[in-house]
Amino acid sequence: MAVRRLRKGSEALEVSAFINLIVVLIPFLLSTAVFSNMSVVDLTLPAKSANYEGLKENDLKLEVVIRHDALEVGDKLGGLIQRIPNSPDGTVDTTTLNGVMFVVKNKFPDVTAASVLPEPNIPYDTVIHVMDAMRTGKTANGGTTVVDVDLFPAISIGDAPVRH
């Protein structure tokens, strides 16, 4: 008895569903990628131990301690320069801080380094606002033009000293 065998030809690969998926997926991914922006802040960590012998009398080691109730602007060796209490709604007063940074910068024009020392559980946004107020400021150039001025762009971050 003769056996009949079916001859199978080559099958065509069905890719239309995959192409439809790609046509929808690519514009979706491209449109969502535009809305995810990231900004980076360059920070340096403070040294493990301070070299007190190498400091000069006129050398400024600016520190801003972020407390839950105030900002404390000071020199590492010279002590407290100014204490800026928080506003009545509990937010930090970055406008006053920026003014203090201008005064300190006028006294020490060559210094670019400063440290930010937040207490535990200080909100991240608060730390960033304080760093922005320390980094740059706006001033009138010739009375008519407002320009950005670098105050203390080299910011280090660490832990606040414990209150006694």
The whole-angstrom Rg is 29 Å
CATH fold topology of the domain at 60-157:
Nucleotidyltransferase, domain 5
Let me know the largest β-sheet.
5 strands, mixed
Strand order of the largest sheet: 3-2-1-4-7
CATH C-level class of the domain at 60-157: Alpha Beta
What percent strand? 15-25%
Oligomer: single chain
Q: Structural class, from secondary structure content?
A: alpha/beta
Q: What is the CATH architecture assignment of the domain at 60-157?
A: 2-Layer Sandwich
- What would the principal axes of the Cα set say about the shape? elongated
Percentage of helical residues?
A: 25-40%
Number of helices: 3
Spans of at least 5 consecutive residues with low confidence = 48-55
The span between the termini is 106 Å
Mean pLDDT: 81
- The total strand number stands at 7
Task: Give the topology string: H per helix, E per strand.
Answer: HEEEHEHEEE
Question: Short summary of the structure?
Answer:
The chain is 27% helix and 24% strand. The protein has 164 residues and is of the alpha/beta class. 15% of the residues are buried.
Question: How would you describe this structure to a colleague?
Answer:
The chain has 164 residues and is α/β, with parallel strands linked by helices. It has a domain at 60-157: Nucleotidyltransferase, domain 5, CATH 3.30.420. It is 27% helix and 24% strand. It is built from 3 helices and 7 strands. The protein has helices spanning 16-33, 94-107, 124-135; strands at residues 62-66, 70-75, 79-85, 113-118, 136-141, 145-150, 154-157. A 5-stranded mixed sheet has the order 3-2-1-4-7, with helices on one face. Strands 5-6 form a two-stranded antiparallel ribbon. Strand 5 (136-141) and strand 6 form a beta hairpin. The radius of gyration is 29 Å and the shape is elongated. 15% of the residues are buried. Residues 48-55 have low confidence and may be disordered.
